[in-house]
Design a protein that fits this description.
Chain A: Its main location: mitochondrion. Chain A contains 20 helices and 12 strands. Chain A is α/β, with parallel strands linked by helices. About 10% of the residues of chain A have low confidence. Chain B is an alpha+beta fold. Chain B folds into 2 domains: about 120 residues, no CATH class; about 200 residues, Ribosomal Protein S5, domain 2. In chain B, strands 1-2-3-6-4-5 form a 6-stranded mixed sheet. In chain B, β2 and β3 form a beta hairpin. The longest helix of chain B has about 45 residues. The chains are: A alpha/beta, B alpha+beta.
C-alpha cells in the first residue's frame, strides 16, 4: 500500500504523510485478534459487536477481498449500520453526521456523572415469548441479543439503533398492538404465508418498526425461520452492484444476496441443520445441487462464491417454501421502497423497475402472494422518514390508507405495482402511546439516568409536559425528552 | 312656607315677626284691635273657644280657593323649580346624614381617618343629562350644575364613610338619593382603561385574545373535567388524612386528563414544527401547575410561527387566570349553599350568646394551636346542645377555611402568571427602517471618500 493511497483513504482525518514503514506498522495495528476485539467491545459496555463485525470475522480473509475492496478493520468496533449494507457503503455513512453514541461510564470520571452509582445497569426482564400476553401490556422489556440474535445479525433500522442507545440496554414496551401482532403470528404459524400478509401502518413516529422488531424477536425465539430486512431502501437505492443476468432476465444483486444469505445462516443455523433440499437444482454452468443436501451446505456454497449467492438464495427460498417443518417469517421494514422507483439505471439510463431486480423481486413475489411459504407470514412496515421513497399511491390504495394529496381519476397507476401490492392488509399501529406505556418507559429511563433534568430527580411535570407536547407520539416523546431545553 | 303659630289664649295674638311684611304694623298699631283678614289664616281654630252653641258648632266657611291647585313648593314661583327643590332636598339629606354620622361618632373625621377610607369612585351626569332628568325645560348652566355636584360630592363622602363603617342602611339610603344623579354607564366608564372581565359561555369555555408581533390569536379554554364534576368529586371525597394510601403498582395513568392543544384545528405537533414553539405554548400550564386541567382551541392569524405561538401563549395565560378565578368562585358558592347556609340556619336556632362564646373559644383554640379534639379539658361535662353548637361552629370554620384555600389557590395562579409576564402582550414589534440607515439600526458601510 503506497503512502499516497493511505492518505487518500483517510481523507477525513487531518492530512498526515505516512512513510512506507509507518503505513505497514499501522496496518499491523489495525488487524487485531478476535479476543482483543471482544475485550475492546466489552470495555465499551456494549452487549456484543454489531452484525458487520461478526460477519467480517466469521468469513475467511480472502472472501473479504472478493470485491476488490480494501479491508479496513476498525481499531475498535464501529457500530453496524444494519442489514443489507456492504463495506462499500461504509465510507458514505462515515462521512455523514455521526450517529449518537453515549460514552461508557469508564470514560466518565467526573463526580457529576455519578458513574459509581450506576450499578449493574437496568434490572429488566429480557424479552421472551411469554411476555407478549395481554397481562404484560405496559411492561418494559430489554432486548438481550445473544450471539445469533436477529437484532445483532440482521441489524435494525437507523432510528431504532439510536433509540436502543438511550438507555444502557435496548428497551421496548409491550403494547396492545404487539400482543395483537403476535396473536396473528401464532395463528399464521400453521397457515401458508399468502394468507397472512400484513403491513404496519400509522402516523410517523408511532412505533411501526419497533412492533415489527418485536414480532421478529418473538419468531426467532419460538422456532420460526426468520428473514429480517431492516432497511429495504438499501436494496433499491443503487448502493450495491447490479449485473444483468441472461438466465433470469433480471438484474442480480450479488452483494445484497450474499449479505442476506450469511445473516440468515447465522441466525437460523440450528434449524437449518434439519432441513434438506428436495430436488436437484443447477446453480450455474459449473455446479448443481443434488437433492437431499443440507440447506446449510447449500448456503455455504453460495458464500464461497459470491456470484452464486443470488441463485443460492433463490433455491433456498424455493426449498423453504416447500418445507413444512418450520414456519418462515419474512419481515421487511421500509417495505414501501420495494414499490417505488429505484435508483438503479440500466444501460439506457432508464430507471430499473423493482421487479426487475433480483432482491426486490423475491420479496415482492412473496409479499404479493404469487409465491408463498407453506407455513409462515409476511410482515412489513411503512416508513415516512426517507422522503425519496414515499409510499406510492398503488400501495396506499391496496392497504386502504387515506390519500395524502388530492387524487383525481386521471392519475396514472402502474398495473404491475398494483399486482404486487394486491392482497396486502394494513395493521394499524396507534398513533399515541398510552399514558401507562409512556410512564413505564419514562420510569425505566429515569432509573437508568438517561433523562436530562434540572431537579434531583426527573419529575412528573417533565413527563406530562413532554407527553402533552408530543401528543403521545412515541418518537416525539423520546426526542422531546432528550432535546428539551426547558427542563 | 310660612308657619303660623297660634297662641291659644283668650285672644288670638300673632306676633309681628310672624306676619308678612305688608301686614306688619307700625308703632301706632293698636294691639287691641285684633282683626286679621280670614284669608290669611290656615287651619285656624275658632276665635272664641269658650263660645257655646251655634258659634261653636260653626265650621269654617268653605273657601274654594283654599283647595285649588296649590303649588307643592314655593319653588313653583321660580324659573327652575325642579332645580331649587333638588338643591333643598339634597341639602336636607346632607344635614340628616351628618346628624346620623355624628351620632355614630363618625363626623367630622380626623384627616388620617379620611385618607384611610377605601376608594369608591362614582360619576355624575353631565349638565345636559341632568337638565333632562330635572325636567325644567331649561338648559342647566355650569354654575348650577356645579352646585348640585358639590352637594352630591359631600353626600358621597358620607356614603363612603357609611360604607367603610359598615352602616348598611345609611349607605343604602344615601345610595337611593345619589343614584338618580349618577351616570347610567358609570361602570363602563370607570372600567374603561382596565382589562374587561373574560366572557364564559354556557359550557364554561373562556374566550380570550392574545397578540404578538403581527399575529393575533383567539383562544378558547375548556376544562378537561367540568367544574361541576370537580366540585361534586371534591365534596364527596373524605378528608385526605382519612384516605387509605393506594398501592402504586395497580394505579393506571390512562384515566388522567391530558391537555390537548388545537391551533387552527390542527394539533400542535403538526402545526408548529419547532419543538421550542410547542414547549412555549404549554409553558403557562407548567407555571400555573395546571397541566392536564384544560384543553385549548385557538384560531390564529397573521405573522410567522413564533409570533403565532406567542399570541396563543398570551391568550392561554389570560384564559387560565379567568378560569381559575371562576373555579374558585363556583367552589365557594357551592360550599356556601350546600354547607355554610344550612349550618347557619341550624345555629340560628341556638341561643346567640352561646354561639358567640363557642366561636370565640374555637378561635382562641385555633390561634393558640390547640387540637380541638381536646375540647373538654379537665373533664368538664357538656350538654348535648353545647356539643352540637361546637360541632357546627367547627364545621363552619372548616368549610370557610376550604373556601379560603380555594380562593388563595386562584390568587396564587394569578400572581404567578402575572409575575411570569405571560398575560402581558409582548410590546416588541419590528422597528421601522430609517432614512440614512440601511435597516432600523444598521448603517451603510463607511466609505473614506
Amino acid at each position: 500500500m503506497s503512502a499516497r493511497r493511505v492518505v487518500a483513504k483517510f481523507s477525513t482525518f487531518p492530512r498526515i504523510q505516512y512513510s512506507w514503514s509507518e503505513s505497514f506498522k499501522l496496518l499491523a495495528c489495525w488487524r487485531m485478534s478476535l479476543s482483543a476485539l471482544r475485550n475492546a467491545q466489552n470495555s465499551l459496555r456494549r452487549t456484543a459487536a454489531g452484525p458487520s463485525t461478526i460477519i467480517r470475522l466469521a468469513v475467511p480473509g480472502q472472501q473479504r477481498h472478493a470485491g476488490g475492496q480494501k479491508q479496513k478493520t476498525a481499531p475498535k468496533a464501529k457500530n453496524s449500520q444494519g442489514g443489507g449494507q456492504t463495506k462499500s457503503t461504509r465510507k458514505k455513512e462515515n462521512s455523514g453526521q455521526p450517529v449518537f453514541r453515549p460514552l461508557p461510564p469508564s470514560q466518565l470520571q467526573d463526580p457529576i456523572f455519578q458513574s459509581e452509582s450506576r450499578g449493574q445497569g437496568l434490572d429488566l426482564e429480557a424479552f421472551n415469548p411469554d411476555l407478549t400476553t395481554p397481562g404484560h401490556v405496559g411492561n418494559v422489556v430489554a432486548f438481550t441479543p445473544t450471539e445469533t440474535d436477529p437484532i445483532r445479525i440482521f441489524g435494525v433500522p437507523k432510528n431504532i439503533l439510536i433509540d436502543h442507545r438511550i438507555a444502557s440496554k435496548p428497551l421496548s414496551v409491550i403494547r396492545d398492538v404487539t400482543v395483537a401482532t403476535i396473536d396473528t403470528l401464532q395463528a399464521a404459524a400453521e397457515t401458508p404465508s399468502s394468507q397472512t400478509r400484513l403491513v404496519m401502518t400509522g402516523p410517523t413516529g408511532c412505533g411501526k418498526s419497533t412492533v415489527l422488531l418485536q414480532a421478529v424477536e418473538y419468531a426467532a425465539k419460538t422456532g420460526w425461520l426468520v428473514f429480517y430486512i431492516p432497511r429495504a431502501i438499501k436494496l433499491v437505492d443503487s448502493s450495491t452492484t447490479h449485473i444483468y443476468d441472461l438466465r433470469t432476465q433480471t438484474f442480480i444483486q450479488p452483494k445484497a444476496a450474499y449479505q442476506l444469505l450469511i445473516r440468515f445462516l447465522t441466525v437460523n443455523r440450528d434449524r437449518l441443520q434439519n432441513l434438506k433440499t428436495t430436488v436437484e437444482t443447477p446453480l450455474d454452468r459449473r455446479s448443481t445441487v443434488p437433492a437431499g443436501q443440507g440447506l446449510v451446505d447449500l448456503i455455504e456454497m453460495g458464500l464461497k462464491d459470491p456470484f452464486l449467492a443470488t441463485t443460492v438464495l433463490a433455491t433456498l427460498l424455493d426449498e423453504l417454501r416447500k418445507q413444512t417443518r418450520y414456519p418462515v417469517l419474512l419481515a421487511v421494514d421500509d417495505i414501501q421502497a420495494l414499490y417505488c422507483k429505484t435508483a438503479y439505471r440500466d444501460q439506457h439510463f432508464a430507471s430499473i423497475k423493482p421487479w426487475h431486480l433480483s432482491m426486490p423481486r423475491l420479496l415482492l413475489e412473496l409479499a404479493s402472494g404469487k409465491k408463498s411459504f407453506a407455513r409462515g407470514a409476511i410482515l412489513g412496515a411503512l416508513s415516512d422518514t426517507v422522503t425519496q421513497y414515499k409510499t406510492p399511491l398503488e400501495l396506499r390504495r391496496a392497504l386502504g390508507l387515506p390519500d395524502v394529496a388530492p387524487v383525481g381519476p386521471f392519475v396514472k397507476t402502474n398495473k404491475t405495482v398494483e399486482e404486487y401490492a394486491a392482497g396486502l392488509k394494513a395493521l394499524p399501529v396507534p398513533g399515541k402511546l398510552s399514558l401507562d406505556e409512556a410512564a413505564r418507559l419514562f420510569e425505566v429511563w429515569v432509573e437508568d439516568k438517561a433523562v436530562p433534568h434540572s431537579h434531583d430527580v426527573p419529575n412528573d411535570e417533565l413527563f406530562v409536559s413532554q407527553y402533552t407536547v408530543s401528543e403521545g407520539n412515541a418518537r416525539g416523546f423520546v426526542k422531546g425528552l432528550l432535546s428539551t431545553l426547558t427542563i | 312656607m310660612l308657619q303660623v303659630l297660634v297662641v291659644r289664649q283668650g285672644c288670638s295674638r300673632i306676633t309681628a315677626r310672624q306676619l308678612p311684611a305688608f301686614l306688619r304694623t307700625y308703632a301706632s298699631f293698636q294691639q287691641q284691635s285684633s282683626f286679621v283678614p280670614p284669608a290669611q289664616f290656615e287651619d285656624v281654630v275658632s276665635a272664641n273657644p269658650n263660645a257655646r252653641g251655634r258659634e261653636r258648632s260653626k265650621k269654617p266657611k268653605f273657601r274654594p280657593w283654599d283647595t285649588k291647585d296649590k303649588p307643592a313648593s314655593p319653588a313653583y314661583y321660580t324659573t327652575r323649580p325642579s332645580f331649587y327643590d333638588t338643591i333643598v332636598m339634597l341639602n336636607e339629606a346632607l344635614q340628616a346624614a351628618h346628624r346620623a354620622l355624628r351620632d355614630c361618632g363618625l363626623y367630622p373625621l380626623p384627616p388620617h381617618a379620611l385618607t384611610a377610607i377605601p376608594e369608591y369612585p362614582t360619576l355624575y351626569m353631565n349638565p345636559e343629562a341632568m337638565a333632562d332628568m330635572l325636567g325644567d325645560g331649561q338648559k342647566l348652566t355650569t354654575t348650577r350644575h356645579r352646585r348640585i355636584i358639590d352637594v352630591l360630592g359631600e353626600l358621597h363622602d358620607c356614603r363612603k364613610i357609611a360604607r367603610a363603617a359598615g352602616l348598611g342602611k345609611l349607605e343604602e339610603a344615601l345610595s337611593g338619593i345619589i343614584a338618580p344623579f349618577e351616570r347610567p354607564n358609570k361602570e363602563e366608564q370607570l372600567n374603561q382603561g382596565k382589562r374587561k372581565p373574560v366572557k364564559f359561555d354556557e359550557y364554561g369555555r373562556s374566550y380570550t385574545v392574545g397578540r404578538r408581533k403581527e399575529s393575533s390569536a383567539r383562544v378558547w379554554l375548556i376544562p378537561t373535567v367540568p367544574f361541576e364534576e370537580q366540585i361534586a368529586a371534591s365534596s364527596s371525597l373524605p378528608p385526605p388524612s382519612e384516605l387509605a394510601i393506594q398501592e402504586s403498582g395497580t394505579a393506571s395513568a390512562n384515566d388522567l386528563p391530558v391537555t390537548q392543544v388545537l391551533v387552527n384545528n390542527i394539533p400542535i405537533t403538526e402545526y408548529f414544527a419547532n419543538h421550542s414553539d410547542r414547549e412555549n405554548i404549554i409553558r403557562p400550564f407548567k407555571i400555573a401547575g395546571l397541566l392536564g386541567a384544560y384543553n385549548v382551541f385557538a384560531l390564529v392569524r397573521g405573522g410567522g410561527t413564533t409570533g403565532q405561538s406567542g399570541a396563543v401563549i398570551t391568550g392561554i395565560a389570560r384564559g387560565l387566570l379567568a378560569q381559575e378565578h371562576r373555579r374558585a368562585e363556583m367552589f365557594s358558592e357551592h360550599i356556601h349553599t350546600s354547607f355554610i347556609e344550612p349550618i347557619d340556619r341550624q345555629l340560628s336556632q341556638a341561643p346567640p350568646p352561646l354561639v358567640s362564646q363557642i366561636e370565640s373559644e374555637v378561635k382562641a383554640a385555633e390561634a393558640s394551636g390547640m387540637d380541638m379534639n381536646m375540647g373538654a379539658l379537665g373533664g368538664v361535662e357538656e350538654d348535648t346542645q353545647v356539643k352540637e353548637v361546637r360541632r357546627l361552629v367547627q364545621a363552619r370554620r372548616d368549610k370557610e377555611a376550604e373556601v379560603r384555600k380555594a380562593r388563595q389557590a386562584a390568587e396564587t395562579v394569578d400572581l404567578v402568571l402575572r409575575r411570569s409576564k405571560l398575560t402581558r402582550r409582548d410590546p416588541r414589534m419590528v422597528e421601522r427602517k430609517k432614512t440614512g440607515l440601511r435597516k432600523s439600526r444598521a448603517r451603510y458601510a463607511w466609505v473614506k471618500r
